[in-house]
Structure formats: structure tokens, C-alpha cells
């Protein structure tokens, strides 16, 4: 994956690392480590209720638990009772499903040079999730797709698994087209055991077709998270002058006049987003909309929340 020339970026004590800053890290494993360590460092300051420190090695105390298992150091900091989990209790299985279609290669031409394409952002996101899952001693796998499945790494919790995933992400490139609904049906066949499934895509397909396929990922009682990636220009459509737009997948061109097209585009996009959000909600699927400037650790909160619900 193409990122800018290598330059050392120090680990930061605060959360919310800027994706444009992360783009200056040439090594994908170092990037993922930077995101995860920044996330873990700031976790105790999380504004998300119910996350705080009860992750990975802890669970809330329940009546009947042995009081000797309470971690009193945690109680002193939080005024809440937690029991230490053992590794055998915390293992989960994570499947990361990344869209590598041509439309994911989009980056607004008028943005700063360090701005990521949706595909690069998706790779950063997938790498960070894989690194975090490994840190949690979870099994993790990866599926890359465009018009078909391009690479499949089954979920494993073994030495070298993270390196395999990061290597696959590093050599991946956006494809030529997409068949989101059809390919997700094939992806569902790879999910043999119950676990967490995270779909990362720009979701350029009719909502009803997307959701019909996404619901198949729930087969076997999988928990599903959908990360919907869009460039800020796609969200705002802030063109100031007439322009010729080209479809990255079909090469079809269309001349547009912003003052006529803009309002209708923004309305249709919002309807698309709301339809996906509503359908995910009714199907008990977590939905998160990301623009490519949004900090990556929001994804880690979503993953951690889904993982805790499953446990």
C-alpha cells in the first residue's frame, strides 16, 4: 500500500490520532501499534459509558463470584467491582471483510496531499483492528473482495497470523469494479464459527441489496459491525464550479453544475445513509459512518463493545 516516505511519528499519550499524521508512518505494523497503544493509553478517559477499564482481562462482578477474585486496585480507581478474566474466557473470533473495489481508491483532488484514499483508510482500519484483536488474544482473519473474493485468510490465533494479515493489506490494491451483494453472499460461506464480522466498505449499492447480503453474515449468530467509509467531499459535495465527474468503476463521465445537482445529491446520499442506519438497527447490526478524517480509535470502541456483548 502506498504511503508517504518513512518518518518517525512518536506515540502520543492522547487518543484520536489524526489519520493524516498516521499516513507518514511507512510501516503498517508500527501504524497499527501506534493507534492501539494510543487507544489503550486513553481508554480510562473514554467518554463512552460502559467501556472504561472493563476490557480484555476483566468482567463485572456478579453475585456468587468469589470475592477473592475481585481486583481491588481497579476498585480503588473506579469504585466498581471487577473480576479478572482468564485468557480462555476472553478469546473471540474476528473476521475483517474489506472492500477493495475501484471506488474505494477515491480521494478528493482538492484535499491536502496527506489525505488518505478510502482504501488506504480502510487498510489502516483493518490493520488496527487486527493488531488489537491479537493483543486481546483473539483469533483474527481477513477477506478482501471486489467483484469476487481476492484473498482469504481464515481466522486463527497463532504466531505469524498478524504478519500474514498485514502483508496481505500491504500488497492489496483497489480493483476494477464491485459486486458487493453477490460477493458478501460468498463471504458468508467462509464463516464457519460464531464470532465478530466487521465489514469495511463505501457501500455503493442499493440499501436493500446491501442489507440482504449483510444479514447473511449474521448466519450462525455472528455479531456484525458495518463501517461505512466516505470521503469528506462525497459527504459534502462542495464543488464551486462546473466539473466533469468520472465513475472509477465504469469510467462513465458526467458533466455537473453544482448549484443544480448539489442539493439533490446531498438529499439522496442522506436518504441512503439513513436507510442503511435504520436497517442495521432493526437487524441488530452495528453501523458506523466514517469520513476519512475520523480518528481510527472510534472503530476500536465499536469492536470492543460488540466483543463484550458477545462474551
Question: Care to describe what's here?
Answer:
The protein has 311 residues and is an alpha/beta fold. The chain has two domains: 21-40 and 91-310, 3-Layer(aba) Sandwich (Rossmann fold), CATH 3.40.50.410; 53-88, no CATH class. Helix content is 39%, strand content 18%. It has eleven helices and ten strands. The strands form three sheets. The chain has a six-stranded mixed sheet, with helices on both faces. It has a two-stranded antiparallel sheet with strand order 1-2. It has a two-stranded antiparallel ribbon with strand order 8-9. Helix 2 (28-42) crosses helix 5 and helix 8 (207-216) runs parallel beside helix 10. The chain is globular. Residues 1-16 and 44-56 have low confidence and may be disordered.
Number of domain modules: 2
Helix/strand class: alpha/beta
Largest sheet: 6 strands, mixed
Low-confidence stretches: 1-16, 44-56
Number of strands: 10
The CATH topology of the largest domain is what? Rossmann fold
Mean pLDDT: 79
Task: Write down the secondary-structure element order.
Answer: HHEHEHEHEEHHEHEHEEHEH
What CATH architecture label of the largest domain applies? 3-Layer(aba) Sandwich
Rounded to the nearest angstrom, the distance between the terminal CA atoms is 34 Å
Amino acid at each position: 500500500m502506498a504511503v508517504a516516505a518513512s518518518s518517525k511519528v512518536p506515540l502520543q499519550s492522547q487518543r484520536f490520532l489524526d489519520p493524516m499524521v498516521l499516513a507518514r508512518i511507512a510501516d503498517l505494523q508500527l501504524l497499527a501499534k501506534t493507534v492501539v497503544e494510543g487507544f489503550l493509553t486513553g481508554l480510562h478517559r473514554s467518554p463512552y459509558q460502559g467501556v472504561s477499564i472493563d476490557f480484555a482481562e476483566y468482567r463485572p462482578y456478579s453475585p456468587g463470584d468469589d470475592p477473592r477474585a475481585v481486583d481491588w486496585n481497579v476498585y480503588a480507581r473506579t469504585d466498581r467491582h471487577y473480576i479478572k478474566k482468564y485468557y480462555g474466557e476472553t478469546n473471540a473470533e474476528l473476521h475483517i471483510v474489506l472492500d477493495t473495489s475501484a471506488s474505494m481508491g477515491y480521494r478528493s483532488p482538492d484535499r491536502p496531499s496527506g489525505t488518505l484514499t478510502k482504501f488506504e483508510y480502510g487498510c489502516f482500519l483493518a490493520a488496527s483492528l487486527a493488531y488489537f484483536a491479537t493483543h486481546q488474544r483473539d483469533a483474527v482473519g481477513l477477506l478482501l473482495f471486489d467483484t469476487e473474493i481476492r484473498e482469504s485468510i481464515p481466522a486463527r490465533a497463532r504466531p505469524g497470523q498478524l504478519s500474514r494479515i498485514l502483508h496481505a493489506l500491504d500488497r492489496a490494491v483497489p480493483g476494477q469494479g464491485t459486486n458487493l451483494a453477490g460477493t458478501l453472499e460468498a463471504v458468508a460461506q467462509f464463516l464457519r464459527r460464531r464470532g465478530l464480522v466487521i465489514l469495511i466498505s463505501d457501500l455503493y449499492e442499493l440499501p436493500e441489496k446491501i442489507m440482504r447480503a449483510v444479514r447473511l453474515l449474521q448466519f450462525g449468530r455472528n455479531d456484525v459491525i458495518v463501517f461505512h467509509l466516505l470521503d469528506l467531499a462525497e459527504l459534502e459535495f462542495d464543488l464551486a464550479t462546473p466539473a466533469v465527474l468520472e465513475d472509477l468503476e465504469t469510467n462513465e463521465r458526467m458533466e455537473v453544475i453544482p448549484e443544480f445537482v448539489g442539493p439533490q445529491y446531498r438529499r439522496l446520499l442522506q436518504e441512503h445513509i439513513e436507510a442503511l442506519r435504520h436497517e442495521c438497527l432493526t437487524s441488530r447490526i452495528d453501523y458506523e459512518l466514517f469520513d476519512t478524517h475520523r480518528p481510527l480509535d472510534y472503530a476500536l470502541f465499536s469492536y470492543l463493545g460488540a466483543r463484550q456483548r458477545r462474551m
